[in-house]
């Protein structure tokens, strides 16, 4: 996904919010035929793809269906959108380093690059940063993330004068096995990954009955599990949403990047974890 497609995603979210705020249901042909979205798409160059899933009706709407594009998690798109907004607000553009990080984060789903861009955009949200925004008295806030982060933001927003009734939250937490965007994939029994055996610590997927040495070329335990066709659950793949949280039965890990909020004791976020020692996971 390029910055153009990221901008399209932001505009799409804005268009959908405007539709919801007006009380009008979206057209039956989907959000991509609204006048606002049609006008926006006509102004954009390059390749743009998008999808919207209506959880109420179960309908999936696609813009340019069948066109495959490189894509990153919504968390990385949010980081890029924040960096672009701040540059626009300050009357500047992304630096060369930030552009390089943005390209790697979006087109290659590079967690290290996303972490660098996240830090450049100000890092973790705090009460002090919210205060700098000068939120109007009638502002509405939409907060998503782990429970502790949301509680912290709710308290900060309330102190800053936002009506608690206008603070809306969505919990990111553990879900049943989930692989967004992957449909119609053949099911394979867990197996050792292809290629030469790994040289890292031994990884045991207890439920799958598989124990294999970690391939140190893999970015994370989640990527390694994917290579072994071990059933997993994930969404952001960047340590933000906690969808991938997994019981750690034994062993020690290191995070890269550090998650937005650490999991509970005895749990591990496999999307950004690498083994320090042999691991036994409840997968």
Question: Main β-sheet, in a few words?
Answer: 5 strands, mixed
Strand content: 15-25%
Count of extended strands: 11
Number of helical regions: 8
Structural class: alpha+beta
Unreliable segments of 5+ consecutive residues: 1-28, 173-178
Compute the average pLDDT: 77
Strand order of the largest sheet: 6-5-11-7-9
Shape: globular
What is the CATH top level name of the domain at 202-281?
A: Alpha Beta
CATH topology of the domain at 202-281: Ubiquitin-like (UB roll)
Round the Cα radius of gyration to an integer and report it: 20 Å
At the fourth level of CATH, the homologous superfamily of the domain at 202-281 is: Beta-grasp domain
What are the salient characteristics of this protein?
11 strands, 16% strand, two-stranded antiparallel sheet, Ubiquitin-like (UB roll), disordered N terminus, 283 residues, five-stranded mixed beta sheet, globular, alpha+beta
């Amino acid at each position: 996904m390029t910055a153009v497609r990221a901008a399209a995603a932001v505009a799409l979210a804005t268009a959908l919010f405007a539709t919801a705020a007006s009380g009008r249901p979206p057209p039956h042909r989907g959000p991509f035929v609204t006048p606002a979205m049609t006008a926006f798409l006509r102004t954009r160059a390059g390749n743009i793809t998008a999808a919207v899933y209506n959880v109420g009706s179960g309908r999936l709407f696609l813009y340019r269906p069948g066109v495959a594009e490189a894509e990153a998690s919504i968390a990385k798109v949010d980081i890029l959108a924040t960096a672009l907004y701040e540059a626009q607000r300050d009357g500047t553009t992304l630096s060369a380093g930030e552009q390089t990080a943005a390209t790697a984060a979006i087109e290659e789903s590079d967690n290290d690059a996303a972490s660098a861009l996240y830090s450049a955009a100000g890092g973790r949200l705090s009460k002090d940063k919210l205060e700098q925004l000068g939120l109007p008295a009638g502002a509405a806030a939409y907060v998503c993330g782990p429970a502790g982060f949301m509680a912290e933001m709710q308290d900060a927003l309330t102190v800053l004068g936002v009506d608690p009734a206008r603070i809306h939250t969505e919990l990111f937490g553990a879900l049943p096995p989930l692989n967004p965007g992957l449909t119609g994939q053949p099911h394979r029994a867990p197996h050792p990954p292809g290629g030469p055996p790994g040289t890292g610590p031994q990884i045991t997927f207890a439920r799958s009955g598989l124990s294999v040495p970690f391939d140190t070329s893999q970015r994370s335990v989640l990527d390694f599990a994917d290579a072994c066709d071990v059933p997993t659950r994930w969404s952001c793949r960047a340590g933000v949403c906690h969808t991938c949280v997994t019981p750690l039965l034994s062993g020690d890990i290191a995070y890269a990047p550090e998650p937005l909020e650490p999991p509970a004791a005895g749990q591990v976020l496999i999307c950004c974890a690498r083994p320090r020692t042999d691991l036994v996971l409840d997968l």
